[in-house]
Amino acid sequence: MNALSLADLSVPLRALRTLAVEFADLPAVDVQVSPIYPDLLNLALHHNLPGFEVWRAALDISPDAVAWHGDAGMFWLEGKTVFAGAHVHLVGFAQLEQPVPAVPEPVVAGGSERAAAVLGVREVAG
Asked: What is the C-alpha to C-alpha distance for residues 27 and 49, in angstroms, rounded to an integer?
């Protein structure tokens, strides 16, 4: 087995250090760095969509590059970018105030057919 050392995580850790210096006034985020993806820095905000927006702007992630995902009681926004050499995955989670209505099943000749749509999901550009 070829185990990684802490030095192998230097790219996302250096990016995190740079973010902490350059954007010290931004809302605190949940941070994850993993040896499974040693060049990835995950940043997550829970129940703070305005915080997600300021992080998105600071990381220069285009609004068009943000994907919206949701289900009956929760939704999340995600954007991806490269910062200081690290791949950064920014996610903002929130609960819906009201449940999303179910996608109606279209009626066709001979019966009904289950809708094959995922509510509010777009591909992330790049």
From this structure: 11
User: Contact at 8 Å (CB) between 79 and 124?
Assistant: yes
| Residue whose entry in the numeric block shows the structure tokens 């802490």 | 6
Q: Output the six-digit token pair for 123.
A: 């591909």
Q: What is the pLDDT of residues 96-108, one digit of tens each?
A: 776 555 555 554 4
pLDDT value of residue 98: 60
- What the block records as the tokens of 28 is 């605190």
Q: What is the pLDDT of residue 111?
A: 39
Q: State pLDDT tens for residues 7-48.
A: 999 999 999 999 999 999 999 999 999 999 999 999 999 989
Q: How far apart are CA 123 and CA 105, in angstroms?
A: 24
Q: Convert the chain into a string of H (helix), E (strand) and C (coil).
A: CCCCCHHHHHHHHHHHHHHHHHCCCCCCCEEEEECCEEEEEEEEEECCHHHHHHHHHHCCCCHHHCEEEECCCEEEEEEEEEECCEEEEEEEEEECCCCCCCCCCCEECCEECCCCCCCCCCCCCC
